[in-house]
Amino acid sequence: MAAPQKKKKKSARSKTALKRQRQSERRRARNLAWKARYKTALRALRKESDLSKLPERLREVHSLLDKIARRRIFHPNKSARLKSKLAHWVAQRLREASPSST
To answer: How far is CA 25 from CA 22, 28, 32, 45, 86, in A?
Structure first.
Protein backbone atom coordinates (compact mmCIF):
# COMPACT_ATOMS: atom_id res chain seq x y z
CA MET A 1 0.00 0.00 0.00
CA ALA A 2 1.44 3.35 -1.04
CA ALA A 3 1.79 6.27 1.33
CA PRO A 4 -1.04 8.79 1.10
CA GLN A 5 -0.14 11.65 -1.19
CA LYS A 6 -0.27 15.20 0.06
CA LYS A 7 -2.94 17.36 -1.45
CA LYS A 8 -1.68 20.19 -3.54
CA LYS A 9 -2.37 23.54 -1.98
CA LYS A 10 -4.79 25.39 -4.22
CA SER A 11 -3.30 28.60 -5.43
CA ALA A 12 -5.42 31.65 -5.96
CA ARG A 13 -5.84 32.86 -9.51
CA SER A 14 -7.02 36.45 -9.45
CA LYS A 15 -4.88 39.36 -8.30
CA THR A 16 -7.22 40.18 -5.43
CA ALA A 17 -7.32 36.57 -4.26
CA LEU A 18 -3.51 36.42 -4.32
CA LYS A 19 -3.36 39.62 -2.26
CA ARG A 20 -5.88 38.24 0.26
CA GLN A 21 -3.79 35.08 0.52
CA ARG A 22 -0.65 37.10 1.27
CA GLN A 23 -2.52 39.18 3.85
CA SER A 24 -3.91 36.06 5.51
CA GLU A 25 -0.46 34.52 5.78
CA ARG A 26 0.96 37.70 7.37
CA ARG A 27 -1.96 37.97 9.81
CA ARG A 28 -1.69 34.30 10.72
CA ALA A 29 2.00 34.72 11.57
CA ARG A 30 1.21 37.81 13.66
CA ASN A 31 -1.63 36.04 15.49
CA LEU A 32 0.59 33.03 16.22
CA ALA A 33 3.19 35.37 17.73
CA TRP A 34 0.58 36.90 20.08
CA LYS A 35 -0.64 33.44 21.09
CA ALA A 36 2.95 32.37 21.80
CA ARG A 37 3.41 35.45 24.02
CA TYR A 38 0.25 34.49 25.92
CA LYS A 39 1.40 30.89 26.38
CA THR A 40 4.80 32.04 27.64
CA ALA A 41 3.19 34.42 30.15
CA LEU A 42 0.80 31.68 31.27
CA ARG A 43 3.69 29.26 31.85
CA ALA A 44 5.50 31.92 33.88
CA LEU A 45 2.36 32.43 35.99
CA ARG A 46 1.86 28.71 36.61
CA LYS A 47 5.53 28.10 37.49
CA GLU A 48 5.83 31.09 39.84
CA SER A 49 6.88 29.70 43.20
CA ASP A 50 6.97 33.04 45.05
CA LEU A 51 3.35 33.59 46.05
CA SER A 52 3.88 37.30 46.64
CA LYS A 53 4.63 37.72 42.92
CA LEU A 54 1.53 35.82 41.77
CA PRO A 55 -0.78 38.86 41.63
CA GLU A 56 1.82 40.76 39.59
CA ARG A 57 2.13 37.88 37.11
CA LEU A 58 -1.66 37.67 36.95
CA ARG A 59 -1.85 41.37 36.03
CA GLU A 60 0.65 40.77 33.22
CA VAL A 61 -1.41 37.89 31.82
CA HIS A 62 -4.65 39.89 32.17
CA SER A 63 -3.10 42.81 30.31
CA LEU A 64 -1.91 40.51 27.55
CA LEU A 65 -5.34 38.90 27.25
CA ASP A 66 -6.94 42.35 26.99
CA LYS A 67 -4.58 43.26 24.14
CA ILE A 68 -5.29 39.94 22.39
CA ALA A 69 -9.04 40.50 22.72
CA ARG A 70 -8.76 44.08 21.46
CA ARG A 71 -7.03 42.76 18.33
CA ARG A 72 -9.74 40.06 18.00
CA ILE A 73 -7.16 37.25 18.06
CA PHE A 74 -9.30 35.69 20.79
CA HIS A 75 -12.98 36.47 21.04
CA PRO A 76 -13.49 39.00 23.88
CA ASN A 77 -15.66 36.49 25.76
CA LYS A 78 -12.92 33.85 25.56
CA SER A 79 -10.45 36.37 26.93
CA ALA A 80 -12.80 37.23 29.80
CA ARG A 81 -13.36 33.54 30.53
CA LEU A 82 -9.61 32.86 30.67
CA LYS A 83 -9.04 35.88 32.92
CA SER A 84 -11.74 34.71 35.32
CA LYS A 85 -10.40 31.17 35.37
CA LEU A 86 -6.86 32.38 36.11
CA ALA A 87 -8.07 34.76 38.83
CA HIS A 88 -9.85 31.86 40.55
CA TRP A 89 -6.74 29.72 40.23
CA VAL A 90 -4.51 32.41 41.79
CA ALA A 91 -7.01 33.06 44.59
CA GLN A 92 -7.10 29.35 45.38
CA ARG A 93 -3.31 29.14 45.49
CA LEU A 94 -3.13 32.14 47.81
CA ARG A 95 -5.90 30.73 50.02
CA GLU A 96 -4.12 27.38 50.34
CA ALA A 97 -0.85 29.05 51.26
CA SER A 98 -2.19 31.39 53.94
CA PRO A 99 -3.22 29.97 57.33
CA SER A 100 -6.98 29.78 57.64
CA SER A 101 -8.55 32.33 59.95
CA THR A 102 -11.74 30.34 60.62
So the answer is: 5, 5, 11, 30, 31
Q: Does residue 2 have a pLDDT over 80?
A: no
Residue partners of 42: CB distance under 8 A and separation at least 6:
61, 86
CB 48 within 8 A of CB 69: no
pLDDT digits (tens, 9 = 90+) for 17-73: 999 999 999 999 999 999 999 999 999 999 999 999 999 999 999 999 999 999 999
d(CA 52, CA 34): 27
Cα dihedral 97, 43, 71, 19, rounded to 10, equals: -170
Please give the average per-residue pLDDT across 74-78, as a whole number.
97
User: Residue 61, exposed/middle/buried by CB under 10 A (0-12, 13-18, 19+)?
Assistant: buried
Hey, what amino acid is at 16?
T
Q: SS3 for 45?
A: helix
